[in-house]
């Protein structure tokens, strides 16, 4: 790992995106009012945003642009309580009144569905009432989570104040070894930087290994930028971005218009990681930055494996975990919950035979949703239980009892561990 400071006069990628959104040239540290290209709410945070919008604009008001707002149900679906059902009813009514697109029929996790359905473009400013909205940075977008009250203001005006963030270039160099993934890379980076080491920075992922990452791999890395305090986690758009979006966005000019790169003479900090010798990483309870190489993790029995979430719930993730399981049954005493990130990803798994393989091994394959990640709907842990999860947070009480223990890993490690019954190095399978 190396670190240095580069101070010159050009603009970073994030400064360029916010300059376009603010209709003027901006630099880090300035406060700007920026136009918003897209806004997203879900079933947990949406009701407060709707309430705030009507309080700001009046009961008969219309949102600034219904074509730029997307509503999704993913946290508590199907409704697991009367309160959740009431929230769903309220949001369906709001979407109908305002003519807003509503993915309420179990399409999947918001951060998978948004880019999958073509709502994310390079160079866009996209806001969501969820901290992991930074996932869309994988496509070259300036994407960040905001509070429900801020979103109410966005609904009314289409704009929001920002302080332009400083940029930290995270150079991911080398080549990831076999069975070591982008999740391991980002866990190592978070472990080194710390949970607040990148507070309000634009983390820009570059370098040889970063450029080789697929879109699913990039989404995993951008998704977890918030776990080191970053405002955004962004990859410069490139040919990989274009290939993914061309089948999802009809306007090819709109895709290419967002292909912005930062200037080499811009002001930024830079740190470097070479991943060529990286081993699988584990985030130990109860903080995401409490990261150890798997060789330093003591033998730890597990009660549950959670494979899914907006971090690692894509087809490629589930396929990798299945390969590690090698058609073996789950270890005695281990539960496994598999939740594809979206309906489309579920169908890929179904057609590839993964659903059958997981179920024959003894796993439960659930409909696309957030599931156990935030301790909602199902998969809660009891006191003293240990879960190995491919999700993004392992705070006390995150997945059930405050006396439970959550460890974070890659899908490869999750699959290997599911058949051994303890946290296992996938390179040993």
TrEMBL record:
GO terms for molecular function: 3-isopropylmalate dehydratase activity; 4 iron, 4 sulfur cluster binding; metal ion binding. It catalyses: (2R,3S)-3-isopropylmalate = (2S)-2-isopropylmalate. Residues 15-421 form the Aconitase/3-isopropylmalate dehydratase large subunit alpha/beta/alpha domain. GO terms for biological process: L-leucine biosynthetic process. [4Fe-4S] cluster binds at residues 310, 370, 373. Its cofactor is [4Fe-4S] cluster. This is 3-isopropylmalate dehydratase large subunit. It comes from Methanothrix soehngenii (strain ATCC 5969 / DSM 3671 / JCM 10134 / NBRC 103675 / OCM 69 / GP-6).
């Amino acid at each position: 790992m190396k670190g240095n400071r580069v101070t010159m006069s050009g603009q970073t990628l994030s400064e360029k995106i916010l300059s376009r959104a603010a209709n003027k040239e901006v630099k880090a540290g300035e406060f700007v009012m920026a136009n918003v290209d897209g806004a997203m709410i879900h079933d947990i945070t949406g009701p407060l945003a709707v309430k705030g919008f009507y309080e700001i604009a009046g009961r008969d008001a219309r949102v600034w642009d219904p074509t730029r707002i997307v509503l999704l149900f993913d946290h508590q679906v199907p409704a697991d309580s009367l309160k959740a059902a009431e929230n769903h009813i309220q949001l369906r009514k709001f979407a109908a009144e305002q003519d807003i697109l509503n993915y309420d029929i179990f399409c999947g996790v918001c951060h998978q569905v948004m880019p999958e359905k073509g709502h994310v473009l390079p160079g866009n400013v996209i806001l969501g009432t969820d901290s992991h909205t930074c996932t869309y940075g994988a496509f070259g977008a300036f994407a960040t989570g905001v509070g429900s009250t801020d979103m109410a203001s966005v609904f009314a005006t289409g704009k929001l104040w920002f302080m332009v963030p400083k940029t930290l270039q995270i150079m991911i160099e080398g080549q990831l070894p076999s069975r070591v993934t982008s999740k391991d890379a980002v866990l190592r980076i978070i472990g080194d930087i710390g949970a607040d080491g990148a507070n309000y920075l634009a983390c820009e992922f570059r370098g040889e290994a970063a450029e080789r990452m697929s879109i699913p791999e990039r989404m995993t890395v951008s998704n977890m930028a918030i776990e080191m305090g970053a405002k955004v986690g962004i990859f410069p758009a490139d040919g990989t971005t274009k290939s993914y979006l061309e089948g999802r966005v009809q306007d090819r000019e709109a895709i290419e218009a967002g292909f912005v790169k930062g200037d080499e003479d811009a002001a930024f900090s830079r740190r470097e990681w070479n991943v060529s010798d990286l081993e699988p990483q584990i985030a130990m309870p109860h903080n995401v930055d409490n990261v150890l190489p798997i060789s330093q993790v003591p033998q730890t029995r597990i009660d549950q494996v959670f494979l899914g979430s907006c971090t690692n719930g894509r087809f490629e993730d589930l396929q990798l975990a299945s390969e590690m399981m090698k058609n073996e049954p789950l270890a005695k005493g281990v539960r496994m919950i598999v939740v594809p990130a979206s309906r489309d990803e579920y169908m890929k798994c179904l057609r590839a035979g993964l659903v059958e393989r997981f179920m024959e091994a003894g796993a439960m394959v659930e409909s696309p949703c957030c599931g156990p990640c935030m301790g909602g709907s199902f998969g809660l842990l009891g006191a003293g239980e240990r879960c190995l999860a491919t999700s993004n947070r392992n705070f006390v009480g995150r997945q059930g009892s405050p006396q439970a223990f959550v460890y974070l890993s890659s899908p490869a490690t999750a699959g290997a561990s599911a058949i051994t019954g303890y946290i296992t190095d996938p390179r040993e399978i």
